[in-house]
Amino acid sequence: MLVVKKFGGSSVANKERIYNVVKRCIEDYEKGNDVVVVLSAMGDTTDELLEKAADISGDAPKREMDMLLATGEQISVSLAAMACDALGVPAISLNAFQVAMHTTSTYGNARFKRIDTERIRHELDARKIVFVTGFQGINKYDDVTTLGRGGSDTTAVAIAASLHADACEIYTDVDGVYTADPRVVSKARKLKEITYDEMLEMASLGAKVLHNRSVELAKKYGVSLVVLSSLERAEGTVVKEVTKVEQMLVSGVTADKNTARIAIIGLNDEPGIAFKIFNLLARKGINVDIILQSIGRDNKKDISFTVAQTDLKDTLKILEENSNVINAEKVAADEHVAKVSVIGAGMQTNAGVAAGMFEALYNVGVNIRMISTSDIRITVLINEEDADKAVRAVHDKFIPED
Amino acid sequence: MLVVKKFGGSSVANKERIYNVVKRCIEDYEKGNDVVVVLSAMGDTTDELLEKAADISGDAPKREMDMLLATGEQISVSLAAMACDALGVPAISLNAFQVAMHTTSTYGNARFKRIDTERIRHELDARKIVFVTGFQGINKYDDVTTLGRGGSDTTAVAIAASLHADACEIYTDVDGVYTADPRVVSKARKLKEITYDEMLEMASLGAKVLHNRSVELAKKYGVSLVVLSSLERAEGTVVKEVTKVEQMLVSGVTADKNTARIAIIGLNDEPGIAFKIFNLLARKGINVDIILQSIGRDNKKDISFTVAQTDLKDTLKILEENSNVINAEKVAADEHVAKVSVIGAGMQTNAGVAAGMFEALYNVGVNIRMISTSDIRITVLINEEDADKAVRAVHDKFIPED
Fold it and tell me: Which pLDDT score, from 0 to 100, does residue A366 have?
């Protein structure tokens, strides 16, 4: 069996943790498995490197930034290989050049194009544990690229896909995917299984377990992911195409407080005005989420939409700069909103979920300001202060107790 | 004109120093020159990485050690390229993979085999300052190698040779090569020029200005080296095949206190015994320097030789372990000795130097214990406490005052 394991930065933050990681890998190796281990940079290394760069230049070229940041993972993998060797098990560390992990050329946010398997297979055939740098690649110029924060998950999935691995295990500081944030909902349950689509909705809506792109890639290549705790020995959550074990109507309830609402009031009702506005924002890389359009007075219309709170300042600036094009009466912003979502592949065939969600929110006095849905998700925009209460109420409604 | 510049770790130890280095490179660039800059790891980075490795394993595989250490220079070059960009001059950093600096496979002590020039030339043609990682290479397995301490000098020379550079400037914390250590001999003069051979004798005898291998390589490929201060703007020392400006009889006087003397007393006078002993030491990588063999009493003989003080413990251990083969009456060691040498290409045609040196030492009451000579060097072994006095006396004798 060929297993790809991925450990994040906090799992390799110091000597003890590196040895812990290596021992878990050796357990697998000693069962006769081929083991490839993708590591992130140790603890705060990436932040320290970012600080060094910020000290030198307020606007460092992204190409040089990637060259700098890529050293972090190289340190992790070489130290892990040393630890493995010290425990008497042959090991080797490989960086993006050595594996040949080809990516697009977008520095800081590259995507995998092709991963060569020859070198990794050669080392596995020599019965070595192979430690591979996460988060990085090389582009067609032989330059170092990085995948953006959280990219090591993607590295693990891409390597698993390339090697046709039997399993891809993502070790995190939580022990699986829960039906809701356990800090908010005490009755939250760990899921045994979840579909790729559900996981994608969960990830993009604030459940910070897996990097979204890694789930997309896993779905594309049919790589079974397992989310596990790097600290405990609990069973994790399997992410796959179709779940069988427990076919629940709703798999999870999430809250995303990094949300702000913008209302553009009193727009002329001319064709293409909404397109103009959202095109302006898209060109600056601002993602617009729930959109609501309504007819106002005097043949005017209003458009409301949500953006990430972290994008609010930029959004307002762009709208201000283009006020002559947009020609609205007023732009209003509200930072104190949150998105609460129910997610479940089961709801595709059950229309009652929306009604049940609205009822649960009504019963606890939560006012719904906007609604957005997909095949497997219903999202409502509510006041931020109501978010936790809303999650608990909706969770109680749909998720059966253990 | 194409110039290769090399700056050591202390020259790039922090933000201010990186900017200083970059500004000096920009000055050259703005004269219209092509500029390639070889950098070492920042300040104590290499030592910190060594500590990390020592923390993980007392006996880390050298292949992994090189993988770890190579990150240090990658950090330097990317930060330098950022600083250059911040000053408005296009720059790029390249590591050993990107340049393709091919070395032998000996991890920790690799030698250059071939340096590809295509990528560097491509970047120079685009009018970029090119920052290259010193100290490292790649071997035929695509693995990272390092050249051993001080290897960045060798990188600079090898790149200068490959690119047929017009100049190779080595910036150090001294401003050139002196006729003696200025801390010992107040009248020591900076040399305008020195031959490769003289520099080699100087380097191996304790004048820590240039890495020996870099001088050998410069000699082999006829690369003119200039040793300059990274702090001041003084004229440096040129190292080349033949010096013309000042044909001095003696170019320098050096003292090497990292010396110990071992005497093996009462050996059986059988053929090959000296070979046996020195072969044992050579196999463990211990360099033996001055050797003296003498006939003792009762058909026995004595052999004395010097080793580096840092090798003394290992040497005594090897002699002890092989005492049944060596079969000597006694092994004695003396740590408190020093080698003092006069070096000068001019002495090849002048037999009077040795006599002058012995006279100068006699005049200040320094006792000579052993003597060794080459074409351009005379070395004497004396008591360590006499070293400074001896250097001053010999310097006074041969080096004319400014």
Answer: 94
CA distance B63 to chain A (A): 9
> Chain B residue closest to A53 (CA)?
B79
CA distance, residue B25 to nearest chain A CA (Å): 16
Place of tokens 């992130």: A40
Rounded Cα distance, A43 and A66, in Å: 18
Indicate the SS3 state at residue A52.
helix
How confident is the model over A25-53, as pLDDT tens digits?
999 999 999 999 999 999 999 999 999 99
Q: Do A79 and B68 touch (CB under 8 A)?
A: yes
Please tell me chain A's helix, strand, coil percentages from 3-state DSSP, rounded to the nearest 5: 40, 30, 30
- As a whole number of angstroms, the distance between CA B111 and CA B135 comes to 10
A58: which chain B residues are within 8 Å (Cβ-Cβ)? 86
Q: How confident is the model at residue A292 (pLDDT cuts 50, 70, 90)?
A: confident
Q: Could you tell me if B61 and B27 are in contact, meaning their C-beta atoms sit under 8 angstroms apart?
A: no
Residue with tokens 């908010």: A184
Q: What does the alpha-carbon distance between residue B296 and residue B275 come to, in Å, rounded to a whole number? A: 18
Q: Where does residue A59 rank: exposed (0-12), middle (13-18), buried (19+ CB within 10 A)?
A: exposed
Residue from B261, B327, B337 nearest B292 by CA: B261
> Which residue in A179, A199, A190, A189 sits closest to A239, CA to CA?
A199
Alpha-carbon span B357 to B253, nearest angstrom:
11
Beta bridge partners of B375: none
Strand order in the sheet with A193-195: A91-94, A129-133, A34-39, A2-7, A167-172, A225-229, A237-240, A193-195
CB contact under 8 A, B59 and A86: yes
8 A C-beta contact, residue B28 and residue B5:
yes
Q: Do A61 and B53 touch (CB under 8 A)?
A: no
For residue A62, give the chain B residue with the closest CA.
B82
Residue of A55, A63, A78, A118 to mutate, interface with B, max B Cβ within 10 Å: A78
Torsion angle, alpha carbons of B99, B26, B155, B170, to 10: 170
Closest CA in chain B for residue A60: B82
Which residues of chain A are within 8 Å of residue B79 when distances are taken between CB atoms?
Answer: 52-53, 56, 64, 68
pTM of the model: 0.84
CB B83 to CB A49 under 8 A?
Answer: no
**Cβ–Cβ under 8 Å, residues A112 and A101:** yes
The 10 Å Cβ neighbour count of residue B272 is 8
Residue of B nearest to A90 (CA): B61
- 8 A C-beta contact, residue B266 and residue B329: yes
Helix axes B62-86, B45-56, angle to 10 degrees: 150
Closest CA of chain A from B6, distance in Å: 20
Chain B, nearest residue to A139 by Cα: B98
**Cα separation, B19 vs A17, whole angstroms:** 37
The residues of chain B scoring below 50 in pLDDT are none
Whether residues A75 and B68 touch (CB distance < 8 A) is answered with yes
Q: Cβ–Cβ contacts within 10 Å for residue A53, how many?
A: 20
Average pLDDT, chain A: 91
A/B interface, count of CB pairs below 8 Å: 111
Q: Which residue has the tokens 């320094």?
A: B366
Average pLDDT across chain B, whole number: 91
A30 three-state secondary structure: helix
- The residues, any chain, with a CB within 8 Å of residue B283's CB and separated by 6 or more, are none
Residues A105-115 have pLDDT tens digits of 999 999 999 99
DSSP B106: -
